[in-house]
């Protein structure tokens, strides 16, 4: 039986994290069976670099977004226009990551909400999936998503960190739910309950590298090759075989992001 095709649907391979090692990181990913990677932007500059990287290799796609931590960089009218032009470009497959982060609160919440609403409207207009980041802001995030046409865009709740009830709210809106290395952490019982609950047609897996390495490699810098640890735990929690779950997830990622698998 051929080796399952793995995907990493959320990676930050920016040189600011990996320097000149990106080539080695991509090689190790291929050797580990990772056939597709979504390179995620967090501001205008990193979105441009994600697109350049995606164009340089096979099995790579890029999204353009402004992270809630960087919300203020989007709110000046000239910056808003420039970002909308950039993100509307034909190379990008989604809008994000974007959302709300009331845990770190690096940007004022009012600014986060404005920057998020703007990106939801953009994604709805472009009919491109949203990559959502949400920490301790679920009610506000859903309110903006619903008010600004988020259902027209669809997308994914990345690095899902809540339980089955919240997963149901995401699924009710037609969104996918993506699990990261946090699934493997000892205290993540609620996340594991959500992982058992989400139907296979709506599930994704990611590293969110260089952050959040899965438990077996928790002391290392995370990278796409490590996505298999999270996939293996996901399969175990769900009582499924790794190859069939990997294929289902690869199909979901290909449909949502147009990953060339
Ligand atoms: Zn995030
Ligand atoms: Zn991220």
The CATH H-level homologous superfamily: Metal-dependent hydrolases
Strand order of the largest sheet: 4-5-6-7-8
Number of strands: 8
Biggest beta sheet summary = 5 strands, parallel
Proportion of beta-strand residues: 15-25%
Top-tier CATH class: Alpha Beta
Q: Per the principal axes of the C-alpha atoms, what is the gross shape?
A: globular
Number of helices: 12
The span between the termini is 18 Å
Describe the structure.
- With 261 residues, the protein is of the alpha/beta class.
- It has one domain (6-257): TIM Barrel.
- It is built from twelve helices and eight strands.
- The protein has helices at 15-18, 22-31, 44-56, 72-75, 77-87, 109-126, 138-147, 150-153, 164-172, 189-197, 227-238, 242-257; strands at 6-11, 34-40, 60-63, 95-101, 130-135, 155-157, 176-179, 203-205.
- The strands form two sheets. A five-stranded parallel beta sheet has the order 4-5-6-7-8.
- β6, α9 and β7 (176-179) form a beta-alpha-beta unit.
- The two termini are 18 Å apart.
- 48% of the residues are buried.
- The model has no long low-confidence stretch (mean pLDDT 97).
- One zinc ion (ZN) binds next to loops.
């Amino acid at each position: 039986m051929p080796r399952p095709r793995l995907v990493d649907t959320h990676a930050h391979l920016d040189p600011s994290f990996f320097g000149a090692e990106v080539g080695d990181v991509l090689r190790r990913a291929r050797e580990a069976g990772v056939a597709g990677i979504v390179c995620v932007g967090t501001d205008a500059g990193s979105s441009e670099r994600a697109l350049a990287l995606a164009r340089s290799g096979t099995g790579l796609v890029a999204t353009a977004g402004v992270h809630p931590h960087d919300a203020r960089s989007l709110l000046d009218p000239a910056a808003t226009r420039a970002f909308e032009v950039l993100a509307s470009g034909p190379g990008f497959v989604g809008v994000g990551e974007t959302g709300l982060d009331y845990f770190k609160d690096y940007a004022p919440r009012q600014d986060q909400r404005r920057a998020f609403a703007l990106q939801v409207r953009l994604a709805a207009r472009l009919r491109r999936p949203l990559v959502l980041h949400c920490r301790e802001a679920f009610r506000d995030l859903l309110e903006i998503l619903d008010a600004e046409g988020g259902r027209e865009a669809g997308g994914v709740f990345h690095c899902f960190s809540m339980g089955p009830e919240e997963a149901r709210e995401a699924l009710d809106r037609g969104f996918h739910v993506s699990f990261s290395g946090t699934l493997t952490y000892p205290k993540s019982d609620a996340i594991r309950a959500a992982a058992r609950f989400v139907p296979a047609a709506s599930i994704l897996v990611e590293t969110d590298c260089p952050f959040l390495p899965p438990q077996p490699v928790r002391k290392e810098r995370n990278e796409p090759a490590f996505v298999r640890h999270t996939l293996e735990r996901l399969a175990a929690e769900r009582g499924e075989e790794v190859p069939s779950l990997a294929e289902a997830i690869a199909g979901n990622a290909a449909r949502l992001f147009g990953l060339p698998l």
